[in-house]
């Protein structure tokens, strides 16, 4: 797959150049699957508490507003409108700003055995599943591998030496950063759109003519979104996407469509919203995993670590911007009659 610029040779062309450096096929296959399972489990554990906290945001805020409720979160709290004249069933605070108090309450509610299980899986995966890389040959990448990776920048870079990636000059970092904008900007837009939907609109997408309570609807929205993300982040071997800007455009269209429904209430069934939210999760996960996959393929060894770390600002920036706009939008809509 290509990226922002340039042609990339196929993997087979690079591998044929120096077969002596490759391990036996059977050992290599076993190592590959151990590493794949290890990193998959590490990613699952890393996101677990964050996902649970987001999914429980509506329940946490409902607990806070319930008078005299100091013991537990009611699984199906009786709706209490922030504004009795509003057509929405609003919490007094949007689900967009999950603060420290919400984090603490959410963690306190989790069963200790569950937390211990996930905490114990970090070291297990790291030490028992992942394979430690062997000593690196200074020329280990070889001519074929060097040719197979197309840098994001066109300027001549100094010869790479092991351990030198942290010594890039300010000018080099700026040049690499500019080359990354074609990936950073779409990923910021994807995260902005999906978190504006998830933490700003989910609470307001409330259907009264259904057997699900408001809290249950919110949980189903979050579960379907996370299921879509889970599937698409695990799909890289099945589907590679080069043009991540297309995913950003589709996610922004999702935001516009659901925002219009919140305003006009034209969708007749909650099941249509369920499908849209599952699709939203598929787009978000695909944008994330393909962005970093493309960057890993298209940067030189000297710049790869800096490029990957720099691109991590995208999700934080997108989420922060969505929270800043979702808060006033929540207050405005909840005052509508």
In brief, what are we looking at here?
This protein is an all-alpha fold. It has helices at residues 11-16, 25-55, 57-65, 100-109, 112-129, 142-148, 170-201, 214-233, 244-264, 270-298, 301-311, 313-334.
Explain the layout of strands and helices.
Blueprint: H1 11-16, H2 25-55, H3 57-65, H4 100-109, H5 112-129, H6 142-148, H7 170-201, H8 214-233, H9 244-264, H10 270-298, H11 301-311, H12 313-334
Helix pairs in contact: 2-5, 7-9, 7-10, 7-11, 7-12, 8-10, 9-10, 10-11
Low-confidence stretches: 6-17, 68-84, 108-117, 137-148
Quaternary state reads single chain
Into how many domains do the coordinates divide? 1
How much helix, percentage-wise, in residues?
A: 55-70%
Order of helices and strands: HHHHHHHHHHHH
Q: What is the number of E strands?
A: 0
How would a crystallographer describe the biggest sheet? Answer: none
CA(first)-CA(last) distance: 52 Å
Key features?
CLN3 lysosomal/endosomal transmembrane protein, battenin, globular, membrane, 12 helices, 64% helix, mainly alpha, 337 residues
Describe this structure in words.
It contains twelve helices and no strands. The protein has one domain. 64% of the residues lie in helices and 0% in strands. About 15% of the residues have low confidence. It has 337 residues and is an all-alpha fold. This is CLN3 lysosomal/endosomal transmembrane protein, battenin.
